[in-house]
Specification:
- There is one protein chain.
- By secondary structure, the protein is an alpha+beta fold.
- It has helices spanning about 1-10, 35-50, 60-70, 75-80, 95-100, 130-140, 150-155, and strands at about 15-20, 25-30, 80-85, 110-115, 115-120, 145.
- The protein has two domains: about 1-55; about 65-155, bacterial protein sp0830 like (Alpha-Beta Plaits, 2-Layer Sandwich), CATH 3.30.70.
- It contains seven helices and six strands, in the order H-E-E-H-H-H-E-H-E-E-H-E-H.
- Helix 3 (about 60-70) packs across helix 7 (about 150-155).
């Protein structure tokens, strides 16, 4: 994670810090266009590491809105074993949304909203047939999942 921090600093980002060992990087940027920031990071990481790295940038304000979004009723959340959010580069197409919904089971539920997919799993994720790899393969996209509790920890670290 220290190498990742150094790379982000070399890309010109400020106040860089990593957050838990899962590729979460918190930073400040003078660039306000999130897509431009994603491109800078992806290009820089590819040049430094020698392979393509999918990047998904969200501002702190966007993260708060994502976590606050009521994708599922509270009584359903209370019974769930896990609740994750997938970050996407762009919203799903209608066809991709239909494909995603076809992956729903008795234990896995999904809601697509904006550039995120909310995944509610009533059993441990390891007991589910769904995974980020399944989603990427079936929908033909790149994504990364984060647990909602991890996202809440990020947000609480930087109150407005």
């Amino acid at each position: 994670m220290s190498q990742l921090k150094e790379l982000f600093e070399s890309f010109g980002f400020l106040a860089v810090e990593t957050f838990i060992a899962s590729g979460n990087v918190l930073f400040e940027s003078v660039e306000e266009n999130g897509m431009a920031v994603e491109t800078t990071i992806a290009s820089g990481l590819q040049a430094a590491l020698g392979y393509e790295v999918s990047t998904f940038v969200r501002s702190l304000h966007e993260l708060a809105s994502i976590v606050d979004y009521e994708a599922f009723p509270q009584h359903t959340l209370d019974k769930a074993a896990s609740f994750g959010i997938a970050f996407l580069s762009k919203p799903l197409s209608d066809e991709q949304t239909c494909t995603l919904m076809a992956l729903e089971t008795d234990v896995d539920s999904f809601v697509s909203h904006g550039r995120e997919v909310y995944w509610l799993c009533s059993v441990k994720q390891s007991q589910s047939t769904f995974s980020s790899a399944v989603m990427e393969r079936r929908l033909g996209i790149r994504t990364t999942f984060r647990g909602v509790n991890t996202l809440r920890r990020v947000i609480s670290k930087y109150p407005n």
